[in-house]
Amino acid sequence: MTTSTADMSPYGRVRRWVTRETTGGVLLLVAAALALVWANSPWRSAYTSLSELVVGPAALHLDLSLASWAADGLLAVFFFTVGLELKHELVAGSLRRPREAAVPVLAAVGGMVLPAVVFVTLVAALGDPGALPGWAIPTATDIAFALAVLAIFGRGLPLALRTFLLTLAVVDDLLAIIVIAVFYTAEIQVLPLVGSLVGVAAFGVLTRLKWARWWLLLPLGLVAWILMHASGVHATIAGVLLGLVVPATTLPGEPTPRVERYDDTIRPLSAAVALPVFAFFAAGVTVVDGPGGPLQLLGQPVVVAITAGLVLGKLAGVLGVTALVTRLTPLRLPDSIGLRDLLPIGFLTGMGFTVSLLITELSYPGDDRTAAAKVAVLLGTMVAAALAAITLLRDARQARGRDMNEDGVPDSDTGSIGDESHS
Hints:
This protein is mostly helical and 423 residues long. The chain has helices at residues 10-18, 21-39, 44-52, 66-91, 98-125, 143-153, 159-183, 190-206, 214-231, 236-244, 258-282, 293-298, 301-328, 342-348, 353-363, 369-397, and strands at 54-55, 64-65. Helix content is 65%, strand content 1%. Helix 8 packs parallel to helix 10.
C-alpha cells in the first residue's frame, strides 16, 4: 500500500516524508544509536530510571514501566499496520493469487526454520542449554529496516524484487505473531481473551458501517487491547487482529478501501513514534558495567547463535528453499527476478531488529542473557544490512537477461526500484 499523494499541505508533506521507507529506517537507527550511547554514558543510570519509570492505572493491572508501555502499547500500533498490510495483501495484493505467492511464502517459512535450527544447534554445542527459550529471536525480519536498505541500495533492480521482499516479510511477521502467541504465552485467562476477541469482532463490524468514526473505533480497540493484555497473550496480538478485520474491498459510496485509509492515517504514528520509541527503550544495552566488561558479554553463546542465525540462517533458509522449490516443482520466481537476486534478499531478511528485540524480552525476562541477546540482534542486523547493501550494489551493476525467472516467457515487468516513489 502507498500513502496518498493528494495532500500538498505542510502536514501532508511531513506525513509523506515520515512514511518513506528510507525515513523509517533512519528513525529506527537514530533511536537505537541514541539509546546505546546513553545507556553506556556516565549518565546511564538516568536512562535506566527512565526505562523503569512506572505509569498507568494499577486497578487495571496497567501500572507498567515506560519500556513495557513501548513494547506492549506502542508496538501494538505497529502491529495494527502489519495487520492492515496483511489484509490488503491477502485480498488485493501479492498474496491473493496462491500460485504467485507460493515461492515467497515458502521462502519465508525456510527463513524462519533455518535460523531456529542454527540457534538451537549452536547454543547446545557451546554448552548453554538454558538459552534455548530464545530459539525464535533470529527468525524475525524487520520490514521497515529491510525496505529502507532496499530502497537506498537497490535502485535500478526490478520493482518486482520489492514486492517479493514485502510478501516474504509480511508472511514472516505473520509467522512471528503466531510464534509469540503460541510459544511465549505462559498462562491464558480465558474470559479476558474471549472478551478481547468479542471486541475485535465488534471492531470489524463497526469498520463496515457507514457511520464508523475514530471516536468509536479507538475506545473499542483500546478495550480489546486491555483485555488481550489481561488474558496473558501478548497485547500486540490485539493490534494484528484489529488490522485483519478491517475491510479491504471498497464499500458502496467510498473511493478507496478502508484498509488503505486507516493505513494512511496510522502509519505516520507507527513510523515516527511507535517504532522509534520502542527501539529507544529496547536497544539501550549497557555493556560497560559488569565484572568482565564488554568482552564477557560478547562471549556468551547467545551472541554467536543469534548473530549466525540472522546472518547465515536467514540467508540459507531463503535461498535454499527457493532454489529447491524452483528446481523441483513447476513454481517459478516472479517475472524479472532471478535466483541471483535473492542473495541480497536473504541478507535483508536477516535484519531482525524490532520483532527480534521484542522476542528477546519475552525469551529472557529478568535473565542476564537479555543484554547479550540484544547486542547480538543489533550486531546481526547491522552485519546483514552491510552485506545486503554490498550485494544489492553488485547485483544492480550486472547485466540482466530477458527471462530472469526462467519460466520460458520473456520478462514483461520492466519497472525498476527508484523509478517511482514508495511511501
